[in-house]
Amino acid sequence: ETVDVTGQFLLPGAIDVHVHFREPGYTHKEDWRTGSAAAAMGGTTTVFEMPNTNPPTRSVKELRQKQEAAAKAHVDYGIYGLLAEDNIDELQGLIDGGVNAFKCFMGNTFGNLPSPSTGAMLEGFEIIAPSGLRISLHAETASIMAWRQKRLMEAGRNDPLAHIAARPAIVAAEAVSRAAELAEWTGARIHILHISSAAELRPLAAAKARGVEITGETCPCYLLLDSRDYARLGSIIRVNPPVREASDSEAIWAALQSGVIDMIATDHAPHTVEEKTRDVIWQADCGFPGVETQMPLMLNEVSKGRMTLEHYVAISAENPAKSFGLWPHKGRIETGAHADIAVVDMNRTETIRAEALHSRGKITPFEGVSVTGVPIHTLVRGRFVQRDRKLVPETSGWGRQVTSIQAMPKPTIRNADQTLAASLQAPAITAEGAGP
Ligand code: DOR
Ligand code: ZN
Ligand code: ZN
Fold first, then answer.
1. Is 196 in the pocket of ligand 1 (CB under 6 A)?
2. Share of the chain above pLDDT 70, in %
3. Cα(63)–Cα(83) distance, rounded to whole angstroms?
4. Ligand 1 pocket, 138 CB below 6 A?
5. Which of 22, 109, 219, 282 is the pocket-test mutation for ligand 1 (most atoms within 8 Å of CB)?
6. What is d(CA 139, CA 34) in angstroms, rounded to the nearest whole number?
7. How high is the pLDDT of residue 27?
8. Exposed end of the chain (fewer CB within 10 Å): N or C?
9. Strand partners, 399
10. For residue 53, which ligand has an atom nearest its CA?
11. Residue 140 CA, ligand 3 centroid: distance in Å
12. Are strands 76-82 and 44-49 parallel, antiparallel or unpaired?
């Protein structure tokens, strides 16, 4: 198989560490075939898939179920295990069973998985730290949001902007700083998902400065949309955490340029058109598909001169590969690496149409946006999964689960003698020998 790529760019395929493919349990929204087809069409060659399916990926039994569903993928994948209050005793099994990373919902969102207490999180971090696997955090503090939403609903607020009011930036900033504290105490590696505010950047940068193993991602919606888009888009724009002010997106752009934010991911979160378009904001499902539009949207920013192509490669492929244990086999085009490649035509202009997306979620806030810079072929380990803007359907099943190698030395557990496990094993103090 050959194609003429004269005048085109060969990029390492994007590595998206944040997608929701919904199977098992919510296949009316997406499944592994449709989700991974969308990835292939978007120049994304590896995805990390989230555990808020039904059942959630909470023990080895559900991990095996997910691996079975994932077997039809067009692209390579990592699988997240859940870290929740009620599966602490399953975490070691998930590690031994081959999860690639963990996800902890500090605030609840789609799937309504209850967020763990700080105590349960701390024990979870202690258990996961020695494995070196990264823990990705939905960093929003549940108790603050629940209180805010209750007060807003009592006051009868149900317009789209009420969604921001229920989740002010302190919700995210408080969660980031608390998670960083737990990571520092336990030596766990953590990752902050979907950075949406300027307020989160301070605790993130501070944690990095004191040596916490912490990385951060943002998503195209937080870079390209802001509060002025709520009137036009209504409930379609509803996502957790919310799209905020223009000053937030400016700060996020700057943090991406300076390296405080390490990577771009999508939080690909498909829902049906009906689930997304509701008159009352509280009834609309949160999120939208992203894995197929990320590369065109970001290459369009490259075309506009807002970032260099080299920097795009760093945030879309190199940095996620390094942070999630895939380097040096993925995230670069070199001898010895997998041939995971997006061939990009920087002169091609397309208009984003939800109807044409390969995801089952046929609704996007980027409807009608014209983009210049499009992945026209995608190869996964040397095989075309997209060719000339067409999916190669027979590559369903070509995708493989990746192996997370932790090239970095395992973190030192600073407080090993104070872990809950150590405390439970400590000899009990008896009254014997006590004086009169
Ligand atoms: O908007 C969101 N949708 N945020 C999340 O964190 C979860 C996601 C989903 O699964 O729908
Ligand atoms: Zn999330
Ligand atoms: Zn998500």
1. no
2. 96
3. 13
4. yes
5. 109
6. 28
7. 98
8. C
9. none
10. 1
11. 12
12. parallel
Lookup: tokens for 138 = 């939905």
pLDDT above 90 covers what percent of the chain? Answer: 90
pTM: predicted TM-score of the whole model, two decimal places: 0.96
Q: Which residue has the tokens 């075939």?
A: 33
Answer whether 294's CB lies under 8 Å from 264's CB.
Answer: yes
Q: How confident is the model at residue 373 (pLDDT cuts 50, 70, 90)?
A: very high
Residues 6+ apart with CB under 8 A from 14: 42, 43, 44, 45, 46, 294, 295, 316, 317, 342
Burial of 55 (0-12, 13-18, 19+ CB in 10 A): middle
CA of 348 to the centre of ligand 3 (A): 30
Q: Which atom of ligand 1 is nearest to the CA of 105?
A: 6
Strands (E), 258-340: 263-264
Residue 286, ligand 1, Cβ within 6 A: yes
Biggest CA–CA distance in the chain, Å, is: 92
Nearest ligand to the C-alpha atom of residue 111: 1
- Closest ligand 1 atom, residue 287 Cα: 1
Query: Quick check: ipTM above 0.95?
Result: yes
Confidence of residue 409 (pLDDT cuts 50, 70, 90): low
CA of 240 from ligand 1 middle (Å) equals 6
Cα–Cα separations (whole angstroms), residue 372 to 299, 301, 352: 7, 9, 11
- pLDDT for residue 86 is more than 70: yes
When pLDDT is averaged across residues 318-339 and rounded to a whole number, the result is 97
| Residue 20 in contact with ligand 1 by CB distance below 6 A | yes
Q: Please tell me the predicted confidence (pLDDT) of residue 405.
A: 81
